[in-house]
Amino acid sequence: MSLELTRDPAHLRHGSNIGQPLTRRDGVLKVKGQARYAADNHPPAMLYAVIAVSTIARGRVTSLDVDAAKRYPGVVDVMTPSHKPPLAEDPDGKPNPFAFKMELLQNDEVRYANQAIAVVIAETLEAATEGAALLSPQYHIEPARVGLDGAESYAPPVVGIGNPAEVRHGDVDVALAGASNRIEATYETPAQYHNAMEPHAMVASWDGDKLSIDTPSQGMAMAQMRLGGLLGIPPVNIHIRSPFLGGGFGSKGLVSGPQVLGIMAAKLVGRPVKLVLRRDQMYGPVGHRPPTRQTLRIGTDGEGRLTAIDHHAKVTTSTFDDFYEPAADASHTRYASPAIKTSHEAVRVDTGTPLFMRAPGEATGSIALESAIDEIAVACGMDPLDFRLKNYAEVEPISGKPFSSKALRQCYAKGAERFGWAGRPLAPRQMRDDDGFLVGWGMGTATFPALMFQAQARAVIRSDGSGVMESGAHDMGQGAWTALAQIAADGLGLGIDQVEFRSGTSDLPDAGIAGGSAHTATAGAAIHNAGAAVIAKLADLATNDEHSPLFGAGNAGVIAREGRLFRRDDEARSESYADILTRAGVAEIEASGGGAADPAAQSSYAMHAHGAVFAEVKVDPELGQVRVTRLVGAFAAGRIINPRLVQSQLFGGMIWGVSFALHEEAVMDHRSGRILNANLAEYHIPVNADVPSLDVLTVDEHDPHVNALGIKGVGEIGVTGSAGAVANAVWHATGVRVRRFPIRIDDLLTRL
Amino acid sequence: MMNFDYVRPLTVAEAVAAASEKGATYLASGTNLLDLMKGGVCHPSRLVDVTRLPGLDRVEYLADGGVRIGALVRNADLAHDAEFARAFPSVAEALLSGASAQLRNAATVGGNVLQRTRCAYFYDAPSACNKRWPGAGCDARHGENRLHAVLGWSEACIATHPSDFCVPLVALDAVVEIEGKSGRREVALEALHRLPGDTPQRETLLERGDLIVALRLPAEARGFAAHARYIKVRERTSYAFAVVSAAASLRIEQGTIREARLALGGVAAKPWRARAAEQVLAGAAPDAAGFREAARIALADAKPSGDNAFKIELAERIVVRALTLATAGTPARIPALPGSPFSSGVRHVA
């Protein structure tokens, strides 16, 4: 897919596109309502599908009044366990570690509230909605297992994707026994559910064994593989269009069950079908962040040097699949300690399977760890920043590997200076503003791994001198259409307006998954390499052509810039791309490139982005209401492709941190297992009035090891550190340490 | 959706007739009702759209000093009516502390008075709720109930009335004008909403077909304009219902409280007028000890209905705060964060 993109006249460019703060090139399309999201598509003869969902959390569906639904005017068909197209693969199978079980009407079992139990297909959305209501399901109900104490716990086999559930480095028990200062504290974080503005949507059209779908995806190639397996068709037969996502945050990384049900419904009725989740239907089948209960035991010597960190996390997972939020792993990389132990235990409860949600593990783990570090600093009588500097990790603590780059010291220094941290009283409850509100300052360290997946790109230079770059990337709102086009322009030695950047569909080269904060790095590396490859081909043409001013220069002696190749040793000798290709009689040349992690570098270095977040809160000393008044984040994340987009990502992450600390919580009835606030009125996230002026600084960092472009990624790091900084500021304002999140009025009220 | 009749009468008499049938419900802007219908909580067979009824969208300043607010006046229009905000500042502040700008632009004052509880179990159709299904039971009573009622609740229902607007209105003796099958009548707003008892499905004393056509504030309500505040504690700064709120209005002469008006929100199935506390305040000096005593009296009958004992303590403190701020004086302008504790300082008056 190629877009009519904005040509922003406001920015200045000085040769390089990378590093320029371009506005989103798809911004005008979005403002004018011309950006077509998945659910905006209406192929001819399309029908509407609505899923009927279970109102119980555990049991079996014993009856559905299919006839009543079918009698309703406009209802075309009702898909049920006994009436559905066959699947080629068991949806409860695990063909690979990234395949999570889904509910595709394979049986009458209910394993969480809001699970799909039927799909009603109708001529109108209203008829399908009413048809779903008329199914009046009857159930055999079994008692729901709810919450962290809802069942017996066990040691999970792995956490995250393949990480060991328990890691030991040194002996924490011995170190704690000999520690001069010790703290032990238990923190609880709530279940959080995905609320991207755009709910999951599917518009599916079949043509024989070929499938054409519009659906938001953070990983189209993986979606093709998964769907191909389930549907029994070659992945290449599936054409996905996903030019824009209204937010993903991990919930659209893997195809969800309801999306597949939309495809099955289209198969069943032989017509295109649209299926869009209602807001409340997102609270179940699309992944969530599970609740955690984390216990930290930390010890230091007499001078405030860490001697032990023991981080244990209890998490929930579903009864039928395995994903374990790797919360304790946050302690692997942050602080130098000769003894570190991280461990996990898990409880199976009647929810959907928890999955990736912005900074999975890092967000939950860091709010606990950063709170605990604050507590041990207090125990040592030290300023929290001094404590962190004293325990600065020069090498990755858990592995002993050197960092590929780590400008965290500069982040601490710059962030503290901008915030005005110096002069912060050590004791809590020392500061008041002119109006009498308690004022507190807190900080947290941010980290997120610099990951790389695998991606491909294809580059073309045409005889009119323009270029094309293709990579099926995913713009979730973060700005891939813009940042990757900037990399493409530099890779092709062209201005950004001379490059047609094609993206957002599955027939383009696989750009890998847009997750793990790795999309710009991975797809960017592929684009960079594809550009270099096509320039090399062009240089071959020119330097082997005796009519070219570049004849004989050889590849190494040529550089590409502004649509021309120049002799490196004599810039007076150059030739335009158009002239080279025209004389050679070639309409266009093309080349491909890949992006992937360098295994040698990965085994030699620990690779992480870093940051420091400083928060100021004010607390009403009698009513307990908390308000964040300032938030400063300083981040070192390798090379910055587009400072404006990066700032936006970090803002968003930091606001998410405020949400984590003060607002966000799914409330589940402890008896029924139903979520009671599955809507945006009652599932609180910060509103504009809750967000203070935010200040984001980035620290220059040149990392030669992470990838050719030196990119580390910024999608998730903003969440980490921020939540802990806010929580620590609440303590500093009040002297009350709240260890259950979000911090509520009732947690403070009687302790103020 | 279930099919339903939709009628748009042009006169109040036609509206009352149309709504007198079983299953009929009035529709104004629908900011609450349509959500309830979509969520399967309400199933009216007929919607009587009153938004085109003539003459109900005006704010009239009466010769006797009172004000008559047509039921179709939008929340935002009333709050931004400069004369109204000057005369009844706590009402304007309460209005602006509610919902979001978009909702306030749409929502009518009549609808505001009749909005339904935000109890999650009321909205969650599969849960047992005596309001939705009399006799079904109350899943909130032993459920997730940290935000539920602490005053006037019963075993049958522990829901709260969520309106901000109604709290200062009830404190200021607002009157509701009702048009019904047998003509026009008036009731005090304080009497409009019922406590749940054994019949929580009966939320007001309105009979079938009754239409609220106006709200009236008496001239005496102007007497509090110099010392009137609405303070609302909520879980985020905007677009959230009150955990607890209080409207305090004082008439202070020569350093003495001549008359006090006090009401609480978020604590009961109705906006809660604290008359006993008002009586203690009348004639007393506006000081912290007196305010604490008034708060204690206001909450004397409170008891937790679940995991919400903190609301009693919080309510007492909000009463003290609202009285303190009212004593300090009504701000010249409605604060940028209406109702928020952060809109004013916490330094105490002596």
Write out the CATH superfamily name of the domain at 224-343 in chain B.
Answer: CO dehydrogenase flavoprotein, C-terminal domain
Instruction: Please identify the top-level CATH class of the domain at 224-343 in chain B.
Output: Alpha Beta
| CA gyration radius of chain B, whole angstroms | 20 Å
* Fraction of residues in helix of chain B: 25-40%
Greatest interface: A-B, 42 and 40 residues
Shape of chain A: globular
Measured on Cα atoms, how large is the radius of gyration of chain A?
27 Å
Please describe the biggest sheet of chain A, giving its number of strands, its sense, and whether it closes into a barrel. 7 strands, mixed
Describe the structure in your own words.
- The complex is a heterodimer of chains A (752) and B (350).
- Helix content of chain A is 24%, strand content 25%.
- Chain A is of the alpha+beta class and 752 residues long.
- Chain A has 3 domains: 152 residues, Aldehyde Oxidoreductase, domain 4 (2-Layer Sandwich), CATH 3.30.365.10; 181 residues, Alpha-Beta Complex (Aldehyde Oxidoreductase, domain 3), CATH 3.90.1170.50; 239 residues, 2-Layer Sandwich (Aldehyde Oxidoreductase, domain 4), CATH 3.30.365.10.
- Chain A has a 7-stranded mixed sheet, sandwiched between helices.
- In chain A, β14, α5 and β15 form a beta-alpha-beta unit.
- In chain A, α7 runs parallel beside α15, α10 runs parallel beside α11 and α14 packs across α15.
- The N and C termini of chain A lie far apart (57 Å).
- The relative contact order of chain A is 0.13.
- About 1% of the residues of chain A have low confidence.
- Chain B is of the alpha+beta class and 350 residues long.
- Among the domains of chain B are: 48 residues, 2-Layer Sandwich (Uridine Diphospho-n-acetylenolpyruvylglucosamine Reductase, domain 2), CATH 3.30.43; 120 residues, CO dehydrogenase flavoprotein, C-terminal domain (Enolase-like, domain 1), CATH 3.30.390.
- Chain B is built from 13 helices and 12 strands.
- In chain B, the strands form 3 sheets. In chain B, strands 4-5-8-6-7 form a 5-stranded antiparallel sheet.
- In chain B, β4 and β5 form a beta hairpin.
- The termini of chain B are far apart.
